[in-house]
User: What shape does this take?
Amino acid sequence: MTTRELDCTDVEALLSGLADGELEPDLRHRAERHLVRCAACTAALERVERLDEMVRLEAGRRGGSESFDDAAIAAVLARTVRTGPAPWRRAVDRLGWLVAAAAIGFIVISGRERLGVPPTTGAPGATTVSHVDASTSISALHRSWTYEGDSPAPSRAVPVAARPDPFAALRPHLDAIDAAGVIAGRLAALRIDDFSEIEQLREIVEYDELLPRIAAARAAADELDRPSLLAIESLMLRIVHGPIEGRDLQDLRDLARALDLKATLGALGERASGGRS
Amino acid sequence: MSRINEATLTRWMRETGPGLVRLSAAICRDRHQAEEIVQEAFVKLWNRPPEAGEIAFLSWLRRVVTNLSINALQRTRRHAPLPEYGDEPRQREHVRPEREAATREGLDRISAALDRLDDSKRTILVLRAVEGLSYEQIAAHLDVPIGTVMSRLNRARAALEAEMARMDDEAPAAIPFPLRREA
Assistant: This one.
């Protein structure tokens, strides 16, 4: 693990963690050492804290402390307590009594058989309490269950087929795709001699563990999107493993520009975000 | 299956309802819709209470409210009307950021900027700045790796600052990550 001094780019990447008190102690100390000598980063941290305060105030103004008043509570009670338990819960209650009755009946009948007590005589078809009858009743009751809310009853006939979500597999990797777009943009803007930038990008790729995350995103993407993710993965591999000479830097920049990776990855992220149902 | 009685439900609504409405309104940007969403969440809680203690109920409610708020956004895709910027410079005196929180105009600006943010950025900002969730809680809430929470918050805050700067027709005070080196 590197112990070099953090620079502004490093601290910018850590800004939220610093403001939120979520950095590990060693990293926090290194960031604070940088803040001591950097007015710009100190100002950036203060802006984060002020923005958060304003977001809180705005939320308080928008939500309002009186927004869940007696009328709202009464509306909820009218849909819950006042109407009694949900139908499925009433069914569960009935089932509980039926199961208890069936168990008692089974115990009674078993006991009578063991004691040699003849069954109750009567006309053919006379019903006696037995576990078979109780089971039949339970099955009939089960079929009558209904549910409130969004869970269909088991007895409902045709399940509604869920609309397939084409981005479901990709969505957990959106953050990696965002980060890859950032990397691609910075690569495209590199000056030919900006090797220090490569070192910073290497730190970001390693710190955010972008290589395995982009690999996972590539595996989850469909065929049309995989080439873009493969290209950025290749670029990251070269950044991380190096070495990178002047010509390599030119190649990386040209590739990032030619593929317009930043825009492509941004569009992919937008489509996947918008596909959430 | 646990059962909630009327007294408990009413107490929870009084104690947590306002905060949940604030959370929902901050995400879906509509207070009236937020109230309906929170009502729906409590109805769900009544009908299908999770098997958990009281503290876990609040986490469950918060997650349900967040999801319902995001779903509402997806359905309606409503955006606050964008302010119109003419060619003439703004006449008001520029308010320094450290005093903005105390002014109604400052809150209007931040409100408009939040309206412009995309849903995912606004949601994570709200979970951190309004709800005060830790990174671990946010990760569990959004079902994302904890390592990505900080980078997402970075981008959300940078986007919010960029929106406010765009509204002012001014360049941002500092170039936000990651645009620092692009020239």
Chain A touches chain B through 65 residues (CB under 8 Å). The radius of gyration of chain A is 33 Å. Residues 119-158 of chain A have pLDDT under 50 and may be disordered. The CA atoms of residues 20 and 222 of chain A lie 37 Å apart.
